[in-house]
Amino acid sequence: MEYLSPNPSISQDDQFDILNEAMQLGSLMPVTYQGLVVENTSACNAKCRMCYQAAGPTGSDILGKASLSPEQVEILLADALHIPSLARRFHLAGGEAFLRPADCFRLFRTARSLGYEDITTTTNAYWAYTPNRAAAICQEARDAGLRRMEISWDFWHLDHIRADCVSNALEAGARFGISTVLRILTTQSHSIAEALSHLRPDALELATEIQSCPVFPTGRAASEIPPDDIFYGQDLGGNCHAILHLTVNARGNVYPCCAGADQTQGLSFGNIHQESIRDIAVRMNSSRLLRTLVFFGVGALEPILREHGVQLGDRFSNICHLCWEIFSRPERAAIVHQFFREQELHEAQRLEQLLPILQSAQES
Q1: pLDDT tens, 274-284?
Q2: Helix 319-327 to helix 330-363 angle, to the nearest 10 degrees?
Q3: CA-CA-CA-CA dihedral for 287, 288, 291, 292, to nearest 10
Q4: Which of 142, 242, 337, 355 has its C-alpha lying 20 to 30 A from 328's C-alpha?
Q5: What is the pTM of this model?
């Protein structure tokens, strides 16, 4: 399996050397984000076996019980507007953010008043247990500024969420002008057709979009979903710079995405309880590690790990799964971080050596 762009005449080690030199030019290109994702709680009313966040009623199996107050999120929303490479999109997620509906409405209103142009959320729609309840939630959410609702639904949600709740939410969303997106996860034994068969046909027709993605074994899925039921990919040479979302998890840790890395400690670039997200974003933009990861792909880290005796293997669903396998394991993350610390130290030493030459040239 190729991790870097395949070229039969260039070894992977040589490709990494080329990549490292290209980083000098890459510093002119900012790391950009499609929006701000805030996970305001690690708790969820459901405890689905495929959940990449490993969320449940008592919190996350990974993060424990954690949450951000509305006041903390409002400060974050205002501060993030000063990040020039961040699109004005706010996405509220969990866990299950609608465990506290009033907080959701408040944050939607705040985001709209601050000038966020696209306000979206993810939910499992447990709250839509009657058509009237679904209508009440959707009407208030729409009045507060919500434009798009992503509804998580699949075979594994059936153990915790009534299918009628999802159908009710689809109908209420359409009634009050909220775009709805059904997000369905699949494995080899559980298809999109199976998940859709449980929903009312008339309600299903009202969904704005239906998206399907294979389960990848991160979070609780790593231990609860049989490995042979997972779909595995072959091309891990891609990158993610065009699909990043600046993400703050329920502990306040900051990440470049919300696809699993946000549940690790190894790819956290700071914490909003300790410094502003503006300062964290500046540091992220200059991080050699992050720039390598997002512009050249997580596969570029494979030679670094291989040099230290770590064989990653070839059973990965996608680049997000590969990224999780590196940064969720402290020993692997430590190798990668140490490599880039040494690179940055080398750059600083080289600059220190060049300064007298540059000063001398200016004087002459």
Answers
A1: 999 999 999 99
A2: 90
A3: -150
A4: 242
A5: 0.90
